[in-house]
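[audit] Reproducing an earlier prediction to check determinism. Same input, same settings, fresh worker. If the tokens differ from the archived copy the diff job will pick it up downstream; this log only records the rerun itself.
[audit] input (319 residues):
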Amino acid sequence: MSKFDPYEHLKVALNPDGSLTRYIRLPTTPATGENTQLVGQSAASKDVVLSEEKKTWLRIYRPAKLPSNDKSIARLPIIIYFHAGGWIQMSVEQTVIHESCNLLSSEVPAIVVAVEFRLAPESRLPAQYEDATDAILWVKDQAVNENGDRWLKEFGDFSRCYLYGVSCGANIAFNAALRVQDMKLEPVAIAGLVMNQPFFGGKQRTKSELKLATDPYFPLPVIDLLWELALPKGTDRDHRYCNPFVDGAYKEKIKSLGRCLVIGFGGDPLIERQQDFVQMLVLQGVLVEARFDDVGFHGIDMIDTRRAAAIINFIKEFV
């Protein structure tokens, strides 16, 4: 693969100042707004500023049809969502992500708080973990503030918050869950983590990485480049942001994680890392539900609606 250009594969170019030019412009969808009549829509959505300084924001979703118990509205779990994109691309306003959040909100059903975090390499790790922590603390603020967000206060169950991430977003969910253990979150409680095709790495190649090195969707040179663009300068793939198996004080915190759902596909070069990750969680005493399918590739749920629906069913059962 010596002639393979990962920048060309990703349709990006690195600029002299260290920023990226991103050549692909995916379609975007605006939020419905808070007071819109929802004709033929499965969920309502609105945008909220998280940090003006960091230019981060949230898109919040609620089901169009709210479930009720004994004529009163049943409280919904709150899912804090971190999108895919290999650290360097994608946005919650892009139609493919917006529609998946609509579906997640209506089908589970749940209040979904989708986080527009900063991208690498303009903002390298741990910026994305900081943005995730900001989002979790924002949810807490809505619970304790009498003027907090109406959707969360009226329809959300703050004692049932879940962190859900896809690919790099799953890495963010994992690391954010470790970070917030030292913070007072009451009345918010993190009830569980959903990690869909989590993006981890390491210097030592796994068998699945070598076997699938020329994978058409997620080849090894692309995986390496994404880490090169995302990790702190001067570090390598054995940094704990990339490799959760390295020893460190944070390892003790893993024991205190709540329930975890891990999803993966056999045709993903990362599959062995994901399976080893599940084993590590189990050995640390974490309650883990693993859903691995022999068939499928990294990001299959973004183009295969049947797989996307199956994953939402897994999450619905878990939540």
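[audit] rerun output stored. Observation attached for the diff report: The two ends are 42 Å apart (CA to CA).
[audit] end
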